[in-house]
Amino acid sequence: MVNILVKEREIVVPGQELAEGMDYLPSEGAFREGDKIISSKLGLFNLDGRLIKVIPLGGKYIPKKNDSVIGRVTDVGFSGWRVDFGWAFNMNVSLKEGSRDFIPNDADLSQYYAPGDLVVAKIIKVMSSKIIDASLKMPGCRKLGTGRLIEVESSRVPRIIGKQGSMISMIKDATGCNVVVGQNGLVWISGSDLENEMKAEETIRKIENEAHSEGLTDKISAFLNVKPREIVENDIQ
Question: Do residues 139 and 100 touch, judged by C-beta distance below 8 A?
Fold first, then answer.
């Protein structure tokens, strides 16, 4: 017998039973105890196929392998770069992970990324809280140009992106802005004019503030005066 004991997007607390039976698997924020799946944190219940997860209501970002994050270059060394991404310690980008193009050993690395440059990078290894390696040669990774950088609660990032990228795509389409969302809670917005950038930021703030409300997709589409995409139903990740 399989039972889901809570409703989608219901707020759950640590120790609360979420499901019974072996047909579902615990994911982030949940664990198995016998034939029950139990919440390990305060957050929103989410069922994604067979995976049961709890999306935290808040809390500081914790780096994980394969996260895409936005950061600022702080130092250029002989063998790579150091990047501040809002964690207690900077992440390292080695020479071989700096670009999809070949970088000679004797190259001036500041010609690729200089202190102060914003980049979007992918975390490839977390050895400890102090040693975190990242790559700038993975798909989607690059130096970011002129734009507006804002910070949001990292726990709201899945809601801002939406299922299959639906929510962020709606924002891009409506404002004409290029928007990059880092899983560390930093968001880069670049548009053709200040008004569009401010509209994109206002929309993201609205999602952040109303992330747990019902019918958020319809609210955002009305706010942007656009028709929601079909795939945005149940757009929480």
Answer: no
Number of domains in the chain: 3
Q: What is the pLDDT along the chain (237 residues), one digit of tens a residue?
A: 568 999 888 889 999 999 999 999 999 899 999 999 999 988 889 888 899 999 887 778 889 999 999 999 999 998 999 999 999 899 999 999 999 998 888 899 999 999 999 999 999 999 998 999 999 999 999 999 999 999 999 989 999 998 889 999 999 999 999 999 999 999 999 999 999 999 999 999 999 999 887 788 899 999 998 876 543 444 433
Q: Which two tokens stand for residue 18?
A: 């979420």
Can you tell me which residue has the tokens 């609210």?
219
Q: Do 156 and 227 have their domain in common?
A: yes
Contact 32, 22 (CB under 8 A): no
Domain range for 25: 3-56
Residues 28 and 37: beta-carbon distance below 8 Å? no
Return d(Cα 54, Cα 10) in angstroms, integer: 10
Do the Cβ atoms of 65 and 126 come closer than 8 Å?
yes
Query: Residue 163: CB partners within 8 Å, gap ≥ 6?
Result: 231, 232, 233, 234, 235, 236, 237
> Do 155 and 198 have their domain in common?
yes
pTM reported for the whole predicted model: 0.78
